[in-house]
Amino acid sequence: MTESLHIVCPHCDGINRVPGDKLTENPVCGKCKASLFNAHPVELNAGNFNRHIGRSDIPVLIDFWAPWCGPCKMMAPAFVKAAALLEPRMRLAKLDTEQAQELAAQYNIRSIPTLALFKNGREIARQAGAMDVNGIVQWARAKL
């Protein structure tokens, strides 16, 4: 039997237990019945941020961005493509620093875009600046 992992639903923020060997079999949320992985970054905010980074047993890669930021807009499609390549072993998420200024200050975000990789609720790596899809994937895998 494989150890179960806690996976936070990207739709309802419910916490699910999924056997590790079943992650690639399109698991669904026990609460809302939506797919736990949809190859798209999760939109985080002040209300669900701590739940996703603190309760997820898979690493969470967060793109700290802002809607007025040109490099953020340029990197956005690459980040979506990276989600398709890194899921289900890693969750990708986006946090709008304009809407969540307290979180941006708490994590000392000084430039955007900034990628921060969290594991077991703790930040383990950070990279500022826009990257292409290959750069995002290689950087994230290298930090684990």
UniProtKB/TrEMBL annotation:
Coiled coil: none annotated. Residues 17-144 form the Thioredoxin domain. It comes from Gallionella capsiferriformans (strain ES-2) (Gallionella ferruginea capsiferriformans (strain ES-2)). InterPro entries: Thio2_N (IPR049299), Thioredoxin (IPR005746), Thioredoxin-like_sf (IPR036249), Thioredoxin_CS (IPR017937), Thioredoxin_domain (IPR013766). Keywords: Disulfide bond, Electron transport, Metal-binding, Redox-active center, Transport. This is Thioredoxin. GO terms for molecular function: metal ion binding; protein-disulfide reductase activity. The keyword Electron transport applies. Belongs to the thioredoxin family. One of its GO terms (biological process) is cell redox homeostasis.
